[in-house]
What we know:
By secondary structure, the chain is α/β, with parallel strands linked by helices. Helix content is 62%, strand content 6%. The protein contains 46 helices and 16 strands. Helix 22 packs across helix 27 (598-611), helix 41 packs antiparallel against helix 42 (890-906) and helix 43 packs antiparallel against helix 44 (929-946).
Amino acid sequence: MDRDHGPRVRVPEQRAPAEPGAADSLRFTVLGPVRAWRGAEALPPGSPQQRALLAALLLREGRTATAGELIDAFWGEDPPSQALATIRTYASRLRKILGQDTLVSESGGYAIRIGRGALDLTLAQDLAAEAEKARAGGNRNQARTLINKALGLWDGEALASVPGPYAENQRTRLEEWHLQLTEARLDLDLEVGSHAEAVSELTALTAAHPLRERLRELLMVALYRSGRQAEALAVYADTRRLLAKELGVDPRPELAQLQQRILRADEELARPADEPAAVPAPLKPAQLPATVPDFTGRDSFVRDLGAQLASAEGTVMAVSALAGIGGVGKTTLAVHVAHQARPHFPGGQLYVDLQGAGARAAEPETVLGSFLRALGMADSAIPDTLDERAALFRSTLDGRRVLVLLDNAHDAAQIRPLLPGTPGCAALVTSRVRMVDLAGAHLVDLDVMSPDEALQLFTRIVGAERVGAEREAALDVVAACGFLPLAIRIAASRLAARRTWTVSVLAAKLADERRRLDELQAGDLAVKATFELGYGQLEPAQARAFRLLGLADGPDISLAAAAALLNLEPHTAEDLLEALVDTSLLESAAPGRYRYHDLVRLYARACAERDEQPPVEREMALSRLLDFYLATAAGVYALERPGDRLVDHLAPTDHPGLTFGDRHAALDWLYTEAGPLLACVRQVARPATLGRAVDLLYAALDLGESGANAKQYEAAAVTVRKAARECGDPRTESRAVMSLANAHQLAGRFDHAEREAEEAMRLAEAAHDLLVISWAANARGIIALYHNRHQDGEAFLNQAIDAFRTDGNRPGEASALCNLSRVHLATGRTGSAITLARSGIDIYDFLGHALRGANGRYALGMALTQSGEFTGATEKLTEALEIFRDSRQRLWEGMTLFRLAEVEIASGRPAQAAQYAEIALTVLRGIGGDWRRGNVLTVLGRALAGIGQTGRAQVCWNEALAIYDALGSTEAAQVRGLLTSTAP
């Protein structure tokens, strides 16, 4: 924390202790304390007057300073009688430290001769100049980076503790330049869309420099673009009042114009600066298969491929190979691009369908014969062998510019003889197989359309009037088609041919996943038939992998999870998965991760139901996947929470999971696997696997607590809770109910959480499940605290402590102790609250339990705040904040920032409090629930009022009041009092 300016929102890149270069090179700093180094060795700074001489010479950047100028710099108009001798003494001392070649005497004065890179000020100047050039050239991100590097060279106040009038003037100049750089950087932040992140920094800066109108202007724009129009207008009102009171003037015209634009809800102002649009490639036809009249989208691919084909006019033959699943539009795109490229190939365009996806691919000899005839060769002149035909083909094309479109290729071996091989020519290849073994080819992976492109294609076929009347249904249709062009074309063609159907009728038909592929056929077009061609060419092991992988519901699957599902060694599974990727039946989302297109997944599941024998193998595959996730998540939980007995209460697994060397690697895995893991929980929430599904939710508790995956976690909890009602097993049901209680509590729905926790405890007591009994009591205690039922809360938490101790669960005991500390704090027992929190922390620290230790420090920080020990409170809360960030616990990170804001308010530092609260609002966006947001808004309002921004404060309090009134919270009365006390 910066003691002068509060918590820093951004930490610019810091300077390394040594600059590159010789070990004995000299370096100097003036953007902070005046210091010198030789290599890595810090040189003695000397007295303040000696540092003043060094600074005066450094700031002249090599120019000579006369003795008179130095005397004026030191003492101004009242120098001592021995001023000149004093100057010479300090110069002599500096020369001994720096060397005679560095500090030189000339013309009755002194100068320092160093390279431009040896002084931090000149480095900052150069970086700022480069930033201006980058910004002028339209490279905003590079400009931001350069300005941040320049700002990072500051180390506190420039020329710190250097005496004399010259130093004071230069300090003022450098502070103003620092502010100008900061304004430029913030302006760039807004231009690139980082407005929400800029609000907290601008709030602190406007508090530190209340009369600086440019900062107020930037803050208004940042708030407006963050959807906080009322606060933006309140900034203007506060500024106008302040300027009138302090200076007797009105805001400058630019600020007034900005207010008017905000009042008009100016859409241009709401958008960051747009990047210049790329120039589309020209559209011209050629002698190729006809392009479709409703070709839609694919702009980036058209530009990329067009540029590649155009490069054939140089000295190298251009080869581009498009790969993708069947129906993704490879041929349509290739033909469209070829039409556009015709001006570059006046020698002609050749086309062939190589039938690569069928049972019998075209023979290269046959294709070459047809090409040679198309180029004017007589049948009698065409040789018989493949090599001779290929050689004649290349010779015939020599000196001509010809485009060859090789559509639907089987593999690279089929097309190599068909490549022109001469400068000025080009080949455009489409295939379901990625041509990684085609030397020199420009490889393009064609994905499905974007939602906008898909809707546009659907509209062109169906008609704007029908789609416009049912836009939402049309979006449902293209989503059901997985944005696959072939599927969209089929669905749209069916609708266009049936004038009595509405778009909603078609959407309803496609909503049934089991019937969807059957619905997506029209005439000789069928999505299923397209997939069938690829599936029919798979080897048996590849076909099995294709079928079983399609059973998993997650958005993607890792190699390790796939190996568990297939019951194979990872290296064997990887070979199969990569083979499926090569055939475009599977996509590789990232190294070691795989996914299906939605319609391909439906087809894979249909194949599994039809071909997987015996049928029980499908259930066994999902059971192995569940075991893998449960075993691995339990290991992560044990690493993150050493000593916690939860893992001893989980269902055993028959298949192993992964192990990790440290908690960071374990957390990386958990958060990467969040989507697939929680999808697995929902999918296996059925009688045979429900117990393990519920236990997986418990082991993956971090996903719910972090906030990042809270909604998905809650959805999984709702699913298992519903399934548990029908299972008839009190143990499983109690755990399912408790998992939902946790989700409700984290989302701030305390009434729902209390009902579920009460039900969980009742079921757990019937099942004698000590795990849920202790967890439910702990949860009910903290919920009672939130409801201000302190006596109930204390009783529940004492019950939790007893239950955790009976179970031998020391981390659980520590959790309940820290929660009990908060009850004592709420009832005025500050001393015992501190003792209880420290007892909990002692247990956590003894066990090496970093994450929960942070929760203990959070509780202790609150207690120390109330006892007036603000330094200690800040220390504990800062320790907690670092751990929560390291553990990716966004919810608790945001709440800790909120508590730090409370400390700053109590300490009389409202500017720092506002900055903490602003960051807390950003971190808690979308998580934690409305009640927590109301608390943060209340504290932010108090901080803003403390720095004189009462207009913004009232906006915050009004929003908080609306939240509390909607929830029926008792905090509403306090906020009404704040609004009344600041009313004009």
